[in-house]
Design goal:
This is tRNA methyltransferase 10 homolog B. Keywords: Coiled coil, Methyltransferase, S-adenosyl-L-methionine, Transferase. S-adenosyl-L-methionine-dependent guanine N(1)-methyltransferase that catalyzes the formation of N(1)-methylguanine at position 9 (m1G9) in tRNAs. Probably not able to catalyze formation of N(1)-methyladenine at position 9 (m1A9) in tRNAs. InterPro entries: MT_TRM10-typ, MT_TRM10-typ_sf, Trm10_B_MTase_dom, tRNA_m1G_MeTrfase_euk. The protein has helices at about 5-20, 30-50, 60-100, 105-130, 150-165, 185-190, 210, 250-260, 270, 290-300, 305-310, and strands spanning about 135-140, 175, 200-205, 215-220, 235-240, 265, 270-275, 320. The protein has two domains: about 5-130, no CATH class; about 135-265, Alpha/beta knot, CATH 3.40.1280.30. Helix 1 (about 5-20) runs parallel beside helix 3, helix 2 (about 30-50) packs antiparallel against helix 3 (about 60-100) and helix 10 packs antiparallel against helix 11. The strands form two sheets. The chain has a six-stranded parallel sheet. Strands 7-8 form a two-stranded antiparallel ribbon. It is α/β, with parallel strands linked by helices. Bound molecules: S-adenosylmethionine. S-adenosylmethionine (SAM) binds next to strand 5, helix 8 and helix 10.
Length: about 325
């Protein structure tokens, strides 16, 4: 359940560095933030004391330090969200003042500010999502089944998934689990995605099975029997980090079953029908970023018909079922 030291650093840096690069001289001007940072410093000291032998049994000690780390992470997230919000408010105030003053120089600054406001807004939403957002995890333990070419494609899809989350009105709290620092995938993620190490994503070498309670997990897999009905705030939705050009069936279905967690598929059969096409090609298997876009749209609109209609690429051979659509067996 614990992020190892480097990964915790990585995670903190994700929020911290993005925030730091945006500060542009807006240092920690208010004492409340500095106060919180000091308190955070104290918390680090407490962790050292508590894990340095206060507990006898190994299991108990590990459990305790995991709890302390979890609390620390929550606190850091809240702090980052608060900072981000305050910075956004400051920029928006400045922009409103510039617009009201009507001077040309100020207007140009204001345009610059609008771009910054958009960035800061995105950062604010992402920071908030890490405190209260629905959770989505990409399980990269299955990445070992892939060729180097597929691994590169997966790295690109992770970048696109993150881009969608940045732009989303209601982003998710994202996790990448089982991402080994010495793996080709880790290197490809950095090569293909600018600023990957600063992404507002929690990255860990641990398994999602160690990170989340089993009962909170729903593994999304095209081979599940159950269709997903809702996206619930207390669940963690897991996607299999797989690009399978050679279509290796049921890898994630079996992974979920062996891990003892329930699985669900997108409700494509419930809302869509096969479209007749020249190639007669029909597939319900999507890339992780496509599945994620569908979940984002569903969270935004509450409608599977809208989310699937917009998110399933026409080439997959499915269209939304309407009252007049001829019913073709799926
Ligand atoms: C390219 S698919 C991999 C399919 C692979 N055969 C498998 O065993 O999962 C990548 C991931 O996107 C998600 N996914 C793709 N299509 C899906 C669908 N129709 N319903 C639910 N999840 C889906 C799953 O998490 C899947 O592991």
């Amino acid at each position: 359940m614990v992020f190892d030291h480097t990964q915790t650093m990585n995670w903190s840096r994700g929020v911290g560095q993005e925030a730091a690069s945006s500060q542009d001289g807006d240092r920690l001007e208010d004492t409340e933030e500095s106060g919180l940072s000091d308190a955070l410093g104290l918390l680090h000291i407490e962790i050292d004391c508590e894990t340095a032998g206060k507990f006898g049994g190994d299991g108990e000690e590990i459990l305790h330090s995991k709890n302390v780390l979890r609390k620390q992470r929550n606190w850091e997230r809240k702090l980052a969200a608060k900072r981000s919000k305050r910075r956004g408010e400051k920029l928006r105030r400045r922009q409103r003042r510039a617009e009201a003053s009507g001077d040309a120089g100020a207007a140009a600054d204001s345009l610059q500010d609008s771009k910054r406001v958009l960035k800061v807004n995105a950062r604010e939403r992402l920071a908030q999502a890490r405190v209260t957002g629905p959770r989505l995890c990409v399980d990269l333990s299955v990445a070992v089944c892939m060729s180097p070419k597929e691994i590169s494609r997966l790295a690109g899809q992770i970048g696109r998934l993150y881009g969608s989350n940045r732009r989303a009105r209601k982003p998710f709290h994202l996790f990448l689990t089982d991402l080994k620092e010495d793996s080709l995938l880790y290197r490809e993620c950095q090569r293909m995605n600018d600023g990957f190490l600063r992404y507002a994503i929690d990255i860990t070498e641990d398994s999602f099975l160690d990170l989340f309670p089993q009962e909170s997990v729903i593994y999304l897999t095209p081979d599940a029997e159950q269709a997903l009905e809702y996206v619930e705030p207390d669940k963690v939705y897991v996607l299999g980090g797989l690009v399978d050009e050679s279509v290796q069936k049921k890898i994630t279905y079996l992974r979920a079953r062996d891990g003892g967690v329930p699985s669900a598929r997108l409700p494509i059969s419930e809302y869509m029908v096969k479209k007749t096409n020249a190639k007669n090609y029909h597939s319900k298997i999507l890339a992780i970023n496509q599945v994620f876009d569908i979940l984002l749209t569903f969270c935004d609109t509450g409608s599977w018909a809208v989310a699937l209609g917009e998110g399933i690429p026409p080439g997959k051979g499915y269209i939304i079922r309407t009252d007049d659509t001829p019913q073709i067996d799926h």
